[in-house]
Amino acid sequence: MVIETKKDEQIIKILLIVNILVSLHILISFIWNFLIVYFQDRNPLIPSYLIDYISFPLYFIVPLFSVILFYCVRSLILKQLNSTVIVSLLIFIFAFFIYQSQVYLFIQSFSPYASHS
After folding, report:
1. Domain positions in the chain
2. What is the rounded CA–CA span in Å between residue 22 and residue 28?
């Protein structure tokens, strides 16, 4: 979509900043949760592979949001504002934000560390 006016450009920049902030929030929260689990005191009764089991979905989520964050920051710095991509990413980010537990569990269902009965 072509940006026609200065007002449209301002709106797209605001949406881009929202994309950056929400992506950064999601990225930091997942990394923070992993670090909390990783550096917790070890209980000998809890299996050692539990960290791998918990972190498996992060192997997909963290790179995805890193790429989204990189694209948004790059677009903001270079002023390459593609409104279709920016709005699509905003919709994707907010859909993920709303359904993140379901997405996490879906990815977790493919975990090689899970016990399959």
Report:
1. 6-40+47-108
2. 10
> pTM of the full predicted structure?
0.81
**Residue 106 and residue 10: Cα distance in Å, rounded?**
37
Query: Using CA atoms, how far apart are residues 54 and 100, in angstroms rounded to an integer?
Result: 14
Residues 6+ apart with CB under 8 A from 22: 93, 94, 97
Within 10 A of 98 (CB to CB), how many other CB atoms are there? Answer: 10
Residues with Cβ within 8 Å of residue 93, at least 6 apart in sequence: 19, 22, 23, 26, 68
- Token pair belonging to 113: 């560390």
Token pair, residue 79, equals 């002023």
How does pLDDT run across 46-61, given as a tens digit for each residue?
777 777 777 888 889 9
Helix (H) or strand (E) holding 91: helix 83-98
d(CA 88, CA 95): 11
55 burial class (0-12, 13-18, 19+ CB within 10 angstroms)?
middle
